[in-house]
Write a structure and sequence with these properties.
mainly alpha, three-stranded antiparallel β-sheet, globular
Length: 129
């Protein structure tokens, strides 16, 4: 189970602007373009929900919300927030954004920002591997 594998899964889930959400964890895009939030057959997610789904897929033997699952999810989120600090050159994102959901939902965050952040962490982790 690795942070890199989770991030690659997250990147795949959020690759299209239509698969990314702001302001809600999960939703289903309707033909009209609007979103039914909380839909069981979701096809779009916020970054935090995509991380949770990817951790579940990668750590399939770990119980959802259990210690192994929670540790891997925390590691992924920590990597993203640390990279956000580096990219933005500002004070600690770990202070400004307690969880990645807050950054995802911030008014200035775009789909491109989310993918760029993921790509930056993936590139760094691939070099380190």
């Amino acid at each position: 189970m690795s942070t890199l594998a989770v991030l690659l899964d997250v990147r795949s889930r959020l690759s299209s602007p239509k698969s990314w959400l702001k302001g809600a964890a999960i939703g289903l895009r309707l033909p009209s373009g609007s979103v039914r939030y909380g839909a069981a057959n979701a096809d779009c997610w916020c970054l935090g929900a995509a991380i949770s789904l990817a951790v579940t897929a990668v750590a399939s033997s770990a119980a959802y919300g259990g210690p192994v699952w929670t540790e891997l999810r925390s590691d992924v989120e920590r990597e993203l927030l640390t990279e956000l600090d580096r990219l933005r050159g500002e004070g600690p994102a770990l202070v400004r954004f307690a969880v990645i959901h807050q950054w995802n939902d911030a008014s200035q965050t775009t789909h491109g920002d989310v993918l760029a952040l993921i790509d930056s962490v993936v590139a760094r982790l691939q070099v380190a591997a």
